[in-house]
Amino acid sequence: MEAANKGVDYHATVATTSSSGPVWPDVRVGRRRPTKGDRREQAILDGAYELLRDTPLRAVSIDDLAKRAGLSRSSFYFYFESKWQVLFAMLGPVTEDVFTASRFIFERPADMAPQEAIEQAAAEVVAVWDRHGHILREVGDAVGAEPELRSQWESILGQFIEAAAAAIERDRATGVAVGGPPARALAAALMWMGERNLGLMSMRSGNAIHTEDIAETIATVWLRSVFGIGTRAQ
After folding, report:
1. 4, 7, 87, 229: which has the fewest Cβ within 10 Å?
2. What UniProt keywords are attached to this protein's entry (predicted)?
């Protein structure tokens, strides 16, 4: 399984990567807080991660999740109150992967040019989003109907926005970035632009940007909006 092979830790709260980075909300929302080594809970999460590749969560039953994990229905409820809480639990490490991929947006090294930083971040975010696309697709589908998940997702995106706004303000202060709308407003527009377009990619929407074009497109929008420049190839 991809999740198991990559050693995804579904119990971890995502840690701050720098003194100014986000601290994500704890997403462990099951009935209990098992130890990291609890193999049965891990079996539920790993099984769900794979099952959701081909089946939307709304079509998955508790019995499906329990059977996939080799457990009884009652054993499932020992760990989670609902199938939606399984999705909540998978969101933490996915968010961590996306933030790590975005690191050069938030904390660009002093010796790295904006084009290189944004292009690399865009490429890495697209790759991570594509890898976890089936989970993020389900989050996008569920936020309208699950208030707890909607609140959590908006909180996560809000912290991405704050981190990007701080980076824009730092670059404007040093003359690297151009002037424009308030930094937070611009960061929000850019982050929601990325979230919506990557979400369409995950849903395989006919309106999605072609996979081979999405990283360059996102990088171009960021660079022109924040720095007033194009990509290195332009």
Report:
1. 7
2. DNA-binding
